[in-house]
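Entry 14. Two folds queued back to back today. First construct below, sequence then structure tokens.
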Amino acid sequence: MLSMRVGLFTEIYRPVINGVVASVEALASGLQSRGHKVFCFAPRMPGTAQSEGGVHRIPSLPLPARTPYRLTLPLVSRRVNAVIRGLSVIHAHSPFVTGWMGMRCARRYGIPMVYTYHTQLEAYAHYVPFEINATRFAANRLTRTFANLADAVIAPTPAMAARLRELGVTVRIETVPTGIDIALFAAGRRRDDIRERIGVRTDDRMLFCVGRLAKEKNLKLLFEALARANDPSLKLVIAGDGPSRADLEQLARESGVFEQSRFLGFISRQDLPDLYASADAFVMASTTETQGIVLAEALAAGTSVIAADAPQNRDVLGSAGLLVPSTAQAFAQAFGRVGSVPEPARAAVARQAAKRFSIQEQIDRTLALYESLIRPARTA
């Protein structure tokens, strides 16, 4: 396969760290490891260089809300435009301004375009100060319109591919899971010193959660379940930060489980594997993910998983985790069954299931898609 020049257009990038950024970085790294050149086009953020190491920053303005996202201004220099014109494929990672920039460039220069469906936008309607049903309708329409203008769409799970069809997407859809660094998370080790440092004793059972502290993640359900379980040996440890942190801390107090809760704040990716492996169970109440990268990470670490039963979570876990209804009672009952002694056989099943999410597998399938789109363009 000839070397490609791939342009990744994303609405969010470093220094912000979230699921989309992790996905874009994994894709970029994987493509580069195969000898392809990758150029990332993202909004300029305070303190970032205009262009650095293949990352080209597009002028942007702050949004009138507490969010790391920026309003991209679709303005590029002649030098950046020359880079875009030389791309083999354009890969958009959002249907907002930066994504539409990529779309227009693809059409103008005859470059094949792929769109990855990272986010169920309708699940974030509560952030927009308009009537919620109208906002959800508009979000679904935006997704459908943008996706149907692409040459192909990547959905990370079969459930999300089906969801796109329900929304009226008619173009080619390929299911390609977002890859993770399996070796990194498989290297995680259970460490009593880490547990002790965060206030989890030897005879405690540690429930671990990773994610942005925001309404759509449904973390409220975990506190309600912890209160209902009424077991002081259960400790809920949360890695991550976000706009709902203060509200969640207050909820933990009101529910009488603040002493059982640990808010760790932001944790670097390198420190996560040992935390996963030190937990007695990884728990996730969200039903709004398109894949749930943290589920794959937990599996790779060999951690027992309890997650809300949703089609996309089912796609990721299969039989390697416990899926329960999205109720406090169901989660509380599941918490009660968590053991404090690691089970080697169960951990082996989890690690085997995680192999489906290797970066190598993602890159193989993504490159095959790129090539299938570029070949007709070359012969046209």
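Second construct, same run, same settings:
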Amino acid sequence: MVETDSNKCKRCGQCMSVCPVYLTTFREDDVARGKLALLERVEAGAMNRSKRFEEILSRCLLCGACAQVCANQVQTSRIMQAGRQRLFELEKSGQAESALLRVVREGRLSAKGLLKGGALLQALACRKIPESSGLYLRFPLSYFTERRTVPPIAWNPFIHAFKSESSVETDGPRIGLFVGCGANYLFPDVARALVGILKRLGATLVVPENQVCCGLPAYVSGDTKTAQKLAKKNIEAFESLELDAILSVCASCGSHLKALPSLFSDEPASRDAASSIAKKHMDAMTFLVNHLGIEKYLKSLRPAKSEERTTLRVAYHDPCHLRIGQGVTDSPRRLLKALPGVELLETAHPGQCCGHGGDFNLSHFSLSMEILNRRVTDLDKVQPDTIVTGCTGCLLQLTEGVSRGGLSGRIEVCHPLVLAEKVIESCLTPTRRRQDPPISQAQHTGAGQ
């Protein structure tokens, strides 16, 4: 696939206008055009694979911006991924134990790293988080030593904390929630916010306990076999539940679920099962807007009377995995515009990447921070009180950017659903709050295994 597809590139350079890495370094080997040329030479045997080649291939966010503007419709992200998979298969180094755990075992972690890592480090080292979670790939030693902010870990992950309130289901749609590692361990408030909103809108929520990591971190590192194993576990967790929709609250997880069938090009049965899951998947904000009428519900609310009440200025950051990976830009904005007391602000470059990119943030931290700084500067120009984004990776990145920019005391960073739930709660006094319909939970064993 790499050799055939990459030959479609006409070297027009359109990708140079949108690549966040190239727009930071202005290096030819940092843009899709340059990488495709190198891949062609390697595949043709004109150039050997090397550490330098591996580094060049890793300097890609896989954001998809280049493919989106390509006049020849070259599937650049898929080609880059195929190249990474080939490197992984050749080296097999990605199957070794977590670098973080190895450092802990050998006693090479600095006191500074231990102090900064805190509960997150302990949770990883003590297997509080299952090894299948993509968080093992996202939080090596460098994460604790270079960052200014390190997220606290949820010692009681969302999936474990979520309890069935009643076995009686509502008349509304039956919704499955794919939680994802970010919302399960780092941002459980996002998943809890969705639970509260779905209850108010009369939906039945099902949270399979045996769901696992979506597999995206393994996939982008070239470990396709692990990504396939995780995908099959998630298919098994959701396929028999008779759901009307499967929602995700993280754009990265959602984008990967949408593309799940592509993991099984040589396995027709698994591909069909993956297609069924992918067809039912929808970003939570899109489902709330297009299928549950949340705009009408929000517009019926009235902010609590307060002499000090002011309009909350909110800037929305488009995650690449939502804007490009799922084609979603409108529904989050419709949700935010419907919130009483909220003013939605648009930046000059709304599609600008934050520079996270999963393991790109780890292997090329300084470059990631340069891209982030450009995005935070853009966001700060509209003077928001809050920055919201629908991806847990972007939440991590933007929180770091706000801290580095000295804006933590002025700007809050959160998921749009968290903001929506806060606004709803502030509007509803105890006497006006309706009786929430019950929520059911799929009864499975082996949570997080």
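Quick look at the second one. The radius of gyration is 22 Å. The longest strand covers residues 312-317.
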